[in-house]
Amino acid sequence: MASDIVFLKDEKLRQLATVIRGHEVENVKNLYFKSVGQQAKYLRICNSNQESVENILNVCGDLVSKYKDDTVRVPIAALILSYGEVCLNNALQIFTNYTLRRTYLDKITTQVDNLMKDLNDLNTSNPTDVATLTNQIQHYEEAVTNFTKMSVNSRASQEFSRNLRKSGIEFQTLVKRYQASLGFDGPFEYLQDELKLQVYEEIIEASGRGKAIALPFKSKDISIKDAGVFLYNAANIAWDVYTSDHPIQTAMRDAVKQVASQGGAVLQEIVEAAITTGLVGIEATSLFVAGIGVVVGIVGSYILGEIAGVIFI
What we know:
The chain has 313 residues and is an all-alpha fold. It has helices at 10-29, 36-66, 73-93, 98-120, 127-151, 158-167, 171-181, 193-207, 227-243, 249-262, 267-276, 286-292, 305-308.
């Protein structure tokens, strides 16, 4: 349920990132790797995830301090800090796969940097410009807050997910169907991020989970450079809608045992084999689960998303 999400502030987020980093380091150490260098690669990701959380909070906090005497900019700087905190809650509590989280943190960093630049360049004597930037950040925070709550609300789309399972439709076919309904031509993977986001939003809304982004997509408050954070969330929820009624729990455990026993060196082979199958049908197998990178909460599971994370985004 959405109530399972607790939105933490600065210091608590730092503590959570530290705890998660320690947990993931232990998981990686318990995996068998064929070389020390290979293990070190995954350990570096653990460390960089925590460092990114610290850096985002630091730069946002520094921005507030920088403009503490600027009556126009300081409230906007505070909004950017608040938005950064919402994004980090989302990253740490929703994206439990640590390699997917690595990419997502990069997207958050880019977006925060863009907002900071917009604030630094803001013409504070123009009330329209001030209001536009303020509204933009507020809408961003509302969208990510909605995505976060929707991510843990599988019950809302239960009937829709059940019907998908019974129909036997493939995920790619589902996406193509909603893409066609929006009139977007060409392969999905070649669409602009903003268009991909609209397709996933249509699936999510049809499923019963609601609409995360209240603004029209042509609004100047949503731009291509900022679509990445939203797209990552929308893709994650759309996939959850598709899989939530599928019997994958046993397959999850089988996948972890398979990867952990053979070592990180076989990760690419396992994932590529899963991709090759095209995710045909809906029967849950360990290969299927490993390929989509949704295994979470089990020792060793965090490495599974490294390659699979690019399939649908």
